[in-house]
Structure to design on (323 residues):
């Protein structure tokens, strides 16, 4: 393993640890700040850091979004506002470890979003393992009995978070639409414009709630700083570096460590995982890993198939030319 690969692996691990701890830390802040106010506070701080880093690295002119400001705003709103507001709203209804498990479906959701965009159908086994992964989530939610979900319902936490995951996948797969933007510039502008949307939506959704005081913010300042710096600035940059250096198929594997981190933190805090939860987590992660491996195998096979077809077409083309 060379130095670049090693650094990318460390970056992917750092992202998983930061995101895995984020859910528990965010939940401890809810008595003082609601999920939407917490999201706004987090991204105001993160945006300031991104803007400073971009200006220092690429110069003040890089802060000008250019003619594509509308597209950047839309992508940033879907990604940063959609994903984070929905995830934190879901966290208000579900346990941190459950939300982290739903977030681990991100690589699987990516395959289906790309199917909708490219019209290239995933391998048949992807559907099978995806269904198994969802059964694993149901086992966790039902504490060993997936049928309990059908009777008791999912609650709002899981569907809200899953909708947020879809929003984040749409955001990350939109990166290719801005080839003239560096990764840092794309991240900064989408985060900045997405934060504007977060502030507006937060004001609209909480207009009838008591105003936030300095004491409220001060009581959770460490939670805000954790979510803004390690869980946003550091995690996004290390995640993007890991995916770029290792490839998407390898980089996304680190997302499977997020629920493991979350369950470990909750266990340290006193939550004793039941046998049903452990079985569900194991089944889900195994199925998600299988989805990724099947997708990688299909991706590797595609160039070989195309090359073989090209070689088989050559004699026919030569014969047609000769005639």
């Amino acid at each position: 393993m060379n130095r670049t690969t090693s650094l990318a692996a460390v970056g992917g691990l750092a992202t998983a640890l930061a995101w895995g701890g984020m859910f528990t830390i965010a939940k401890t802040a809810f008595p003082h700040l609601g999920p939407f106010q917490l999201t706004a506070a987090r991204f105001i701080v993160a945006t300031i850091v991104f803007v400073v880093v971009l200006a220092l690295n690429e110069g003040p002119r890089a802060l000008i979004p250019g003619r594509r400001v509308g597209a950047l705003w839309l992508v940033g709103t879907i990604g940063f506002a959609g994903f984070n507001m929905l995830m934190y709203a879901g966290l208000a209804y579900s346990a941190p470890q459950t939300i982290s498990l739903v977030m681990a479906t991100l690589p699987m959701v990516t395959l289906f979003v790309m199917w909708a965009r490219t019209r290239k159908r995933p391998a048949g086994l992807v559907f099978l393992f995806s269904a198994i992964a969802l059964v694993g989530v149901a086992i966790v939610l039902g504490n060993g009995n997936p049928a309990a979900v059908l009777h008791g319902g999912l609650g709002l936490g899981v569907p809200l978070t899953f909708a947020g995951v879809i929003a984040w996948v749409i955001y990350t797969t939109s990166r290719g639409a801005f080839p003239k933007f560096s990764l840092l510039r794309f991240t900064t502008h989408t985060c900045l414009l997405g934060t504007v949307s977060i502030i507006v939506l937060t004001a609209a959704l909480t207009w009838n709630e008591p105003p936030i005081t300095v004491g409220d913010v001060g009581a959770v300042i460490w939670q805000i700083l954790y979510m803004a710096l390690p869980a946003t600035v550091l995690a996004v940059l290390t995640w993007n570096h890991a995916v770029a250096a290792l490839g998407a198929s390898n980089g996304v594997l680190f997302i499977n460590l997020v629920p493991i981190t979350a369950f470990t933190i909750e266990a340290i805090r006193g939550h004793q995982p039941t046998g049903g939860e452990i079985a569900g987590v194991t089944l889900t992660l195994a199925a998600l890993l299988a989805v990724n491996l099947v997708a990688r195998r299909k991706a590797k096979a595609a160039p070989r198939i195309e090359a073989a077809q090209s070689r088989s077409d050559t004699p026919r083309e030569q014969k047609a030319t000769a005639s």
About this structure: The first helix runs from residue 3 to 29. The chain has a mean pLDDT of 81. The chain is about 80% helix and 0% strand. The two ends are 54 Å apart (CA to CA).
